[in-house]
């Protein structure tokens, strides 16, 4: 079983932050993985005997890793070089990506349960309801944008005739992949936090029919989401200003304590 720890807290006004906690050791292990080779990909898709949809997943992950390695290489290019300038342009474009998309992309298909950490001052039902809303809204929006990005790929591919790097095509390709990942994550999250995946305690409390409880299948009683009210997180909210929200210093402390990306969390200030 693979659990995803989701941190939830208000950051400014009605804007709440939803971010997955990623341990530093996991980040380091991902960055040290060697770049995959095409021969390894060929072996995986020809010898595993898996159906087509699973082979598509393998191919997608392969090119995703390739893109991440190439992006890291651009960031390490000498300052002032063409590669370094392309990386700078990419950073500016990525800064416009909504934080909710980054969050949904972090919920991979192998996540089996969600641990939701939130301040004790928040209503747990409201926390779960807003998490479901983000998942449902994401499934609608990113499906729409995914098909839109796919339709733009042939047009941007035509820019290859120009004697310059085809940035529009690669950006559209990245956005297509990003929307696809966010769509997969939103659908997975919606399943995990929906009413059909409640714990035994929640089912006994919410159900009005005792006979219905007796006929619940064992799989329906598996806790796929768990609420963790945090007094420590609630202490950070003592400095919450109704107009300006949490200060950047407080946000930085929360991110350090719960292993969150400070830049992505700060985006929630202006995100609706």
Terminal-residue CA separation: 33 Å
Tell me the number of helical segments per DSSP (H or I, 4 or more residues long): 12
Q: What integer value in Å does the Rg equal?
A: 21 Å
The overall strand count is 4
Q: Strand order, biggest sheet?
A: 2-1-3-4
Q: Pairing-aware structural class of the strands and helices?
A: alpha/beta
Shape: globular
What kind of sheet is the major sheet? 4 strands, mixed
Q: List the helices and strands in order.
A: EEHHHHHEHHHHEHHH
The residue ranges in which pLDDT falls below 50 over 5 or more consecutive positions are 24-31, 197-221
InterPro entries: Mit_KHE1
Pfam families: Mit_KHE1
GO cellular component, one term: mitochondrial inner membrane
GO biological process, one term: potassium ion transport
How would you describe this protein?
With 272 residues, this protein is α/β, with parallel strands linked by helices. It has one domain. Helix content is 57%, strand content 11%. The protein has helices at residues 24-31, 38-47, 52-75, 82-94, 99-105, 124-157, 167-192, 200-206, 210-214, 231-236, 248-258, 262-266; strands spanning 3-12, 15-20, 113-119, 225-230. The chain has a 4-stranded mixed β-sheet. The longest helix is centred in the middle third of the chain and has 34 residues, at 124-157. InterPro entries: Mit_KHE1. One of its GO terms (cellular component) is mitochondrial inner membrane. One of its GO terms (biological process) is proton transmembrane transport.
């Amino acid at each position: 079983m693979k659990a995803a720890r989701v941190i939830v807290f208000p950051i400014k006004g009605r804007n709440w932050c939803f971010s997955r906690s990623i341990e530093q050791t996991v980040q380091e292990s991902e960055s040290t993985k060697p770049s995959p080779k095409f021969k390894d990909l060929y072996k995986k898709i020809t010898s595993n005997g898996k159906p087509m949809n699973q082979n598509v997943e393998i191919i997608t992950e392969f090119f995703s890793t390739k893109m991440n390695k190439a992006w890291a290489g651009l960031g390490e290019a000498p300052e002032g070089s063409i590669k370094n300038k392309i990386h700078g342009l990419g950073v500016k474009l990525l800064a416009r990506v909504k934080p909710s998309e980054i969050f949904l992309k972090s919920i991979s298909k192998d996540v089996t349960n969600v641990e939701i950490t939130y301040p004790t001052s928040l209503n747990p039902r409201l926390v779960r309801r807003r998490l479901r809303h983000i998942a449902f809204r994401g499934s609608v929006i990113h499906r729409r944008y995914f098909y839109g990005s796919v339709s733009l790929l042939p047009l941007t591919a035509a820019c290859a005739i120009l004697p310059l790097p085809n940035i529009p095509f690669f950006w559209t390709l990245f956005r297509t992949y990003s929307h696809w990942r966010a769509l997969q994550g939103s659908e997975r999250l919606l399943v995990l936090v929906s009413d059909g995946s409640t714990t035994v305690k929640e089912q006994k409390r919410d159900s009005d029919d005792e006979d219905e409880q007796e006929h619940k299948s064992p799989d329906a009683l598996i806790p796929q989401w768990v609420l963790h009210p945090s007094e420590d997180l609630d202490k950070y909210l003592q400095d919450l200003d109704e107009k300006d929200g949490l200060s950047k210093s407080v946000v930085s402390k929360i991110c350090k304590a719960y292993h969150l990306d400070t830049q992505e969390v700060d985006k929630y200030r202006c995100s609706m």
